[in-house]
Design a protein that fits this description.
With about 160 residues, the protein is of the alpha+beta class. The protein is built from 4 helices and 5 strands.
């Protein structure tokens, strides 16, 4: 039977090796080495999967989505034209709001903004766009729509002046 304090010391040394605090695995009999090598492989495999998952999430956050922002919506005598701006989920929501309001030439306190996806039917009512939660839900909806189906779709978030409805 193996001494429990020696076993604990070996486990601690193995953990130190896994955390790169110790340069080599502790000495042990052949069975112990194989067992530890199995644990090291299992641990490093889990770390690689965790890193790839984190990298995918980071890439998804940085991937930009096109926002179609209408100009001249306050002037009924002018035809609305659209400007495309791309933002990622990692951009500050307040910066996105400020840019949209500046392009539309509406005041910061303007409460008649909405959004819809470019793939949505035109009979659907737009969603409200008043808070950072609304921006987050627009990003989530766009990501879900992009990944639905067999191939990735081009989806834009269209900004709407709801006072014109």
């Amino acid at each position: 039977m193996v001494n429990s304090s020696a076993c604990q010391r070996t486990h601690a040394q193995t953990a130190a090796f896994l955390l790169s605090l110790h340069s080599e695995l502790p000495n042990a009999n052949e069975e112990g080495v194989n067992n530890r090598m199995h644990r090291v492989r299992h641990f490093s495999k889990g770390m690689n999967e965790e890193v790839s998952t984190t990298t995918q999430q980071h890439h998804t956050q940085l991937e930009k989505i096109k926002f179609r922002v209408p100009l001249h919506t306050m002037d009924i005598n002018q035809m609305a034209t659209y400007v495309d701006q791309s933002y990622s989920k990692s951009d500050c929501c307040l910066d996105i709001f400020d840019a949209i309001r500046a392009m539309m030439d509406v005041p910061k306190s303007y409460q008649h903004l909405g959004w819809c996806l470019s793939t949505a039917r035109h009979i659907n009512l737009p969603h409200q766009l008043l808070t950072s939660l609304d921006i987050d839900s627009a990003f989530k909806a766009a990501r879900a729509e992009q990944s639905s189906g067999r191939k990735k779709k081009r989806v834009a978030i269209e900004i709407v002046n709801t006072a014109c409805f």
